[in-house]
């Protein structure tokens, strides 16, 4: 009898421990950040394939493997350097990237994903079903946000395990000065839209 009770207690403890284990962020997860004192900073952020996120006035953070609470504390600490009063920050996990059914999943190969992160209105992971270029991807993400540095956009692409970067000037494209840099995207590409500097 006591053996059965012991086994049941062990199972209950194991289940409770599993439920209590904190979730660790992965590439493709989507976070919603709210800064109560500065609503203009409120935004959604996607964790890039390299595990990083970008947030205004804070810069880039290595969020991969961190908990939501850890990211919240890191953003709050970064913003605290910019303000003289206390800053209330809330970070919530609103989207989790689903794992492919298998490494040979045909749909994943046919419909690859791209990521748009930084100063866009709806950052995230997007499935591309047809040829897609940089401007189209930015449009899919809701367009450039007010703080976007359109002249300093970069596309990160992994080639044979090494990161390569392509510069893109959105303003030059719109004005017709440079249309050739609006390249076609590949699955796994990350479009990084940085925050505009003080004198830009």
**Beta strand count:** 10
Instruction: Provide the succession of SSEs.
Output: HEEEEHEHEEHEEHE
Q: What is the first-to-last residue Cα distance?
A: 75 Å
Rg (CA only): 20 Å
Could you name the CATH homologous superfamily of the largest domain?
Outer membrane lipoprotein wza domain like
Strand content: 25-35%
Please mark out the parts with pLDDT under 50 across 5 or more consecutive residues, or reply none: 2-19, 103-109
Identify the CATH architecture of the largest domain. Roll
What structural class results from the helix and strand content? alpha+beta
Strand order of the largest sheet: 7-6-10-8-9
Identify the CATH class of the largest domain.
Alpha Beta
> Can you tell me the CATH topology of the largest domain?
Outer membrane lipoprotein wza fold like
Total domain modules: 2
Shape: globular
Q: Level of helix content? A: 25-40%
Q: How would you state the average pLDDT, rounded?
A: 82
Key attributes of the depicted protein:
200 residues, alpha+beta, wza like fold, Outer membrane lipoprotein wza fold like, 3-stranded antiparallel beta sheet, disordered N terminus
Structure, explained:
This protein is an alpha+beta fold and about 200 residues long. The chain has two domains: about 30-95, wza like domain (wza like fold, 2-Layer Sandwich), CATH 3.30.1950; about 105-195, Outer membrane lipoprotein wza fold like. Strands 7-6-10-8-9 form a five-stranded mixed sheet, covered by helices on one side. A three-stranded antiparallel sheet has the order 2-1-5, covered by helices on one side. It has five helices and ten strands, in the order αββββαβαββαββαβ. It is globular and about 45 Å long. The protein has helices spanning about 1-20, 70-80, 105-110, 135-140, 170-175, and strands spanning about 30-35, 45, 50-55, 60, 90-95, 115-120, 125, 155-160, 160-170, 190-195. The longest helix has 19 residues, at about 1-20. About 25% of the residues lie in helices and about 25% in strands. β8 and β9 (about 160-170) form a beta hairpin.
């Amino acid at each position: 009898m006591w053996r059965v009770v012991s086994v049941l207690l062990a199972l209950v403890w194991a289940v409770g421990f599993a439920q209590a284990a904190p979730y660790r962020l992965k590439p493709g997860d989507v976070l919603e950040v709210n800064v109560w004192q500065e609503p203009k900073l409120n935004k959604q952020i996607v964790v890039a394939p390299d595990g990083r996120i970008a947030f205004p006035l804070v810069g880039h953070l290595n969020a991969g493997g961190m908990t939501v609470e850890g990211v919240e504390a890191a953003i709050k600490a970064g913003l605290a350097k910019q303000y003289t009063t206390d800053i209330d920050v809330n970070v919530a996990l609103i989207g989790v990237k689903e794992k492919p059914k298998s490494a040979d999943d045909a749909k994943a190969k046919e419909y690859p994903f791209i990521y748009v992160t930084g100063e866009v209105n709806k950052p995230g992971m997007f499935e591309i079903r047809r040829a897609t270029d940089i401007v189209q991807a930015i449009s899919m993400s809701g367009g450039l946000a007010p703080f976007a540095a359109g002249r300093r956009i970069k596309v990160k692409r992994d080639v044979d395990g090494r990161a390569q970067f392509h510069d893109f000037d959105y303003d030059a494209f719109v004005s017709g000065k440079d249309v050739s840099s609006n390249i076609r995207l590949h699955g796994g590409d990350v479009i990084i839209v940085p925050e505009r500097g003080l004198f830009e």
